[in-house]
Design brief:
Elements (H helix, E strand, L loop, with lengths): L1 H18 L3 H25 L10 H27 L7 H4 L3 H5 L4 H7 L7 H18 L5 H28 L9 H8 L11 H10 L2 H13 L4 H26 L8
Helix pairs in contact: 2-3, 2-7, 3-6, 3-7, 3-8, 3-11, 8-11, 8-12
């Protein structure tokens, strides 16, 4: 309950800061609408030429886009703002302001992960869920309780994988504070808006096992469309748990290399 109260305080403080910059809301809204429009338009043009690609039709591919937008929104809401604040030339590690995080009597990883929130990202979340709803309606099948449960488990695994990867990149910041490691991830994450099966074998291998961005989106979409097996869901959950342990270990290992600004 102590951590829940802290998160409430973090959300409240972040909301007050966001309200002070209202122009950011309209800029963010425009960016979100453009991102949605380009994603949907690209798929409409693609499936205007063919009916299916490797077993994926327009409604099921829209489900992947919806999951992709939802994950991006959750990243922008509470995962990215805090971890991204550590990196770069003006980041907390480079400038030494990370000292204040270490001085607080709370778990360092918790503070580094949940201090900053961006409530305006709720707009992106609504758009992502709306695309998911449209895809389900176009599938012509009811979303059963079993499918919904599998989808929620798959989405939890996807969010966990996303957090674990970004946490690992945040740990690498302690070795090179000025480098934005998330640039690498962002380039690959863009590919997760399409089914993994569309890519060449070597790239599919990278997107599944090296930096598994494809797992984050394809597996929840398979749950919505009824294509996901219990075995694959269990494997994705195990992968998420493994990456979380590994990302946390790398982050804490990086903490040992941090040179305080006051030292």
């Amino acid at each position: 309950m102590h951590y829940v109260k802290l998160i409430r305080l973090f959300v409240s403080a972040s909301a007050q800061d966001e309200v002070a910059h209202r122009a950011n809301f309209w800029i963010g809204l425009l960016h979100s609408l453009l991102n949605l429009a380009t994603g949907v338009l690209g798929m409409v043009v693609l499936f205007g030429q063919v009916d299916t690609i490797h077993g994926w039709d327009l409604p099921s591919t829209l489900a992947i886009l919806g999951v992709y937008l939802t994950l991006g929104a959750l990243r922008g809401l509470f995962i990215g703002p805090s971890l991204d604040a550590l990196a770069g030339m003006d980041g907390e590690v480079w400038t030494g302001t990370f000292d204040f995080t270490l001085l607080r009597p709370v778990d360092v990883q918790f503070l580094a992960s949940f201090r900053h929130w961006r409530p305006f990202a709720l707009v992106d979340l609504v758009l992502g869920l709306a695309v998911l709803a449209v895809s389900v309606s176009q599938l012509g099948e009811s979303l059963t309780l079993a499918r919904l449960a599998m989808f929620l488990v798959a989405m939890t695994a996807g969010v966990t994988i996303l957090y674990a990867i970004l946490l690992a990149f945040a740990g690498l910041v302690f070795w090179s504070p000025g480098f934005l490691f998330t640039w690498i991830f962002d380039a690959l994450f863009q590919m997760a808006r399409y089914p993994v099966g569309l890519y060449p074998g070597w790239l599919r291998l990278v997107l599944t096992w090296v930096i598994p961005v494809g797992v984050m989106t394809t597996i929840p979409a398979q749950a919505v469309t009824g294509r996901l097996s219990i075995g694959v869901l269990a494997a994705a959950s195990a992968l998420a748990a493994t990456l979380l342990v590994g990302g946390s270990a790398l982050f804490r290992l990086g903490l040992r290399r941090y040179a305080s600004a006051s030292s």
